[in-house]
Amino acid sequence: MTTEIERTGDPIADPGLAPHQYRPQDVDGNQERRTERQIAGMFGVATLLLIGFCVAYFTIDSDVRVFAFGDPNSGDAFGGWSAQNFTFGTTLGGALLLIGIGIIQWAKKLMGDHEMVEMRHPARSSDEDRSAVMADINAGVQESGIGRRPLIRNSLLGAVGAMGLPAIVMLRDLGPLPHSQDETVWKKGMRVVNDVSGAPIKPADLEVGQLVNAEPAIFFETDDEGHPVIHGHDLLAAKAKAAVIVVRMRPEDITPKKGRENWGVEGILCYSKICTHVGCPISLWEQQTHHLLCPCHQSTFDLADNGKVIFGPAYRPLPQLPLAVDGEGYLVAVSDFPEIVAPSYPELARDQEKLNEKFGGEA
């Protein structure tokens, strides 16, 4: 059966559309201006919320919790939510919500409102249709009123522009810059303790061939109120760089580099637990060969020969921590690591030169 369109090439004269209903904003200038101010207000509040996101990033400590049990400002609080994450969610989410609602209200109440009837056409439009589309786009721009409504336009541009602020601020969370990792929490006289119990270690506690995972004693220390000296995010960051392994070998099996003859105690040596390839934690210990194997990419270090790389992709020796014994007979650090504890990166040579100057020569 032939349709009316196929027979005449024209659409049906009256497709049955209801009469056009004008919006209050179309007939009432006061209502139009009131709606415009409401939309601009949403964009303005969104801008303030995005600025609040950036302020919260720098002013709220990542360890503070809300709706938590215990002191929300201490590392002992548990349960509840991270105050920083809660603020991030409310400010950024609220800003996105207000911008979205404002744009929808703008389109529904202020932009051009009329029915359009469009004939179907082949997949490729004719040049005339393309010109007509561009004319429609230009007409849409005119009907949106973006040129004659500077209050809405400028407030929207301000809110959308402020969206870049959280993105820039959050770039800091990609991690510390390589040259900020030159030092760890190890200091002269700091005790070496078991990483589980926190018990200090004496030379007599170790047997030949034994390996112990250890940490600096400061991780287990508390202040006058009983709170950990280092806790929360700072504790995790410090542990990532300061973790060590302590091994005991026969002194005659050790061949120390010049200047390292007194870095051990009765055959006990201390090395970083962080692989110099990509930073994996390592503690796979071969007692007979004195080799330490990284489980990630099989880099192998000879701990009897200054942590030298003997196999695998790592090309820097394992950093060694010089040891001594304090007045009570416990193992302590003589200083921080003279070498950089971190995965390898391009700036490493420059930063190692700075450490060499600090420790008075090549480490």
Automatic annotation (TrEMBL):
It comes from Aeromicrobium choanae. Belongs to the Rieske iron-sulfur protein family. Pfam families: QcrA_N, Rieske. Keywords: 2Fe-2S, Cell membrane, Disulfide bond, Electron transport, Iron, Iron-sulfur, Membrane, Metal-binding, Oxidoreductase, Respiratory chain, Transmembrane, Transmembrane helix, Transport. The chain crosses the membrane at residues 39-60, 86-107, 151-171. This is Cytochrome bc1 complex Rieske iron-sulfur subunit. One of its GO terms (cellular component) is plasma membrane. Gene3D superfamilies: Rieske [2Fe-2S] iron-sulphur domain. InterPro entries: QcrA_N, Rieske_2Fe-2S, Rieske_2Fe-2S_sf, Rieske_Fe-S_prot, Rieske_Fe-S_prot_C. GO terms for molecular function: 2 iron, 2 sulfur cluster binding; metal ion binding; monooxygenase activity; oxidoreductase activity, acting on paired donors, with incorporation or reduction of molecular oxygen. Residues 263-332 form the Rieske domain. Its main location: membrane. It is found in: Cell membrane. It is a multi-pass membrane protein. Residues 23-32 have a biased composition (Basic and acidic residues). Its cofactor is [2Fe-2S] cluster. Iron-sulfur subunit of the cytochrome bc1 complex, an essential component of the respiratory electron transport chain required for ATP synthesis. The bc1 complex catalyzes the oxidation of menaquinol and the reduction of cytochrome c in the respiratory chain. The bc1 complex operates through a Q-cycle mechanism that couples electron transfer to generation of the proton gradient that drives ATP synthesis. Residues 1-32 are annotated as: Disordered.
